[in-house]
Amino acid sequence: MSYSTIILTLSDGVATITLNRPDKLNAFTAQMHGELRGALASVAADKSVRALLLTGAGRGFCAGQDLADRAVSAGDEPVDLGHSIETNYNPLVRTLRALEIPVVAAVNGVAAGAGANLALACDIVLAARSASFIQAFCKIGLIPDTGGTWMLPRLLGMARATGLAMLGDKVSADRAEAWGMIWKCVDDEQLLPNATALAADLARQPTRGLAFIKQALAASPSNTLDQQLDVERDLQRLAGGTRDYREGVAAFMAKRAPSFEGR
Ligand code: LHQ
C-alpha cells in the first residue's frame, strides 16, 4: 500500500513510521489518520516486525490536529469533535497500547496537542534536545485528549499535570526527562541513530516477554497490589511457556549470548 502523509519502512525487524506533513509540522488530517491506521494494521499483522519506531519528518514531531481540516472546523457551524476523537484519536491510542511489540517514539521537534500525547502513548520516548512538548489544547478551549488526562497525572503527578493542562506551557525535552515524562533527551544529531539502535536492540529481545511487560504495566494503575500480583502470576506463567524463556535460560547456563526468536 502506498501512503502520502506518512512513510512506512521495514528493516532489521523494526517498522519505522514517519509522520510526513512537514510543512504543517505533521499535524493530523483525516487522511493521515486513515493512512496511519492502515500502516499500524499492517505492522501488527507482520510477525517479522518486532519493534515500532515513530517519528516526524522535518522540524516538528506532530502539531496535533490540523486545525484547518474540515472535520474539525467548519466556520461558524458547530462540529462534533467527539466524532473525530471516537473515529481517529481513541483507536490510535488503543492500537498503540495494544500492539504486542515495543513502540519507541523519536520526538524530533515540537510535539503539541494530540501530537504530544501521541508521543506519550508510546512505550519508550526519546526526544531531541531541541524538541518540546506542549499541551496546547487549553489555548483553544479544549481539553487534553489522545489519553493526555490519563497519562499526564500518572507520569507527572496531579500538580504538574494540572499546570501543563491549564497553562499550556512549553516543556523542553531536558525538563521532560527531568520530570520523568519521557525516557531520555539526547543531542539532536544523536536522536535518530540512538532511536534506531534502541528499536533494533528491542527487536532482538524476547518479544513475547516485552509484550507481557507492557500488559502488566498497563494493568497496574487501576489494580490493587493483590490484583496486580495475580496479573504477574498469570503473565509470568505465559512468559515461562515461551521458546525465548527456554533460550534465555539455556544461554545463561551455557555462558553464551542468547538468540531470541520472539516466540
Ligand atoms: C498547523 C498546526 C495545526 C494546522 C502548525 N494545524 N496547521 C483537536 C480537535 C479535534 C479533535 C481532536 O483532537 C484535537 C486535538 C488537538 O490536537 S488540539 C491542538 C491542536 N494543535 C495546536 O493547537 C497547536 C497549534 N500549533 C502551534 O501552536 C504552533 O504551530 C507550534 C507551537 C506547534 C509550533 O510553532 P512554530 O514553531 O512557531 O511553527 P508555526 O506556528 O509557524 O507552524 C508552522 C506551520 O505549521 C504553519 O503553517 P504556514 O503555512 O503558516 O507556514 C502553521 O500554521 C502550521 N501548523 N500547527 N495544529
Task: Summarize this structure briefly.
This protein has 263 residues and is an alpha/beta fold.
- What count of helical segments does DSSP give? 10
Number of domains: 2
Which cofactor or ligand species appear?
A: ligand LHQ
CATH class of the largest domain: Alpha Beta
**CATH architectural group of the largest domain:** Alpha-Beta Complex
CATH superfamily of the largest domain: 2-enoyl-CoA Hydratase, Chain A, domain 1
Q: Helix proportion of residues, in percent?
A: 40-55%
Unreliable residue stretches = none
Mean of all residue-level pLDDT scores:
97
* Helix-strand pattern: EEHEEHEEHEEHHEHEHHHH
Sheet of most strands: 6 strands, mixed
Shape: globular
Radius of gyration, taken over Cα atoms and rounded to an integer in Å = 19 Å
User: Hey, roughly how much beta strand do the residues contain?
Assistant: 15-25%
Could you say which structural class the secondary elements and strand pairing correspond to?
alpha/beta
Distance between the termini: 27 Å
Strand order of the largest sheet: 1-2-3-5-7-10
Number of strands: 10
Would you tell me which CATH topology of the largest domain applies?
2-enoyl-CoA Hydratase, Chain A, domain 1
Topology record:
Layout: E1 6-11, E2 14-19, H1 30-45, E3 51-56, E4 60-62, H2 81-98, E5 103-107, E6 110-112, H3 114-120, E7 124-128, E8 132-134, H4 148-156, H5 158-167, E9 170-172, H6 173-178, E10 184-186, H7 191-203, H8 207-219, H9 225-240, H10 243-253
Parallel strand pairs: 2-3, 3-5, 4-6, 5-7, 6-8, 7-10
Antiparallel strand pairs: 1-2, 8-9
The site of ligand LHQ has 24 residues, from helix 2 and strand 6.
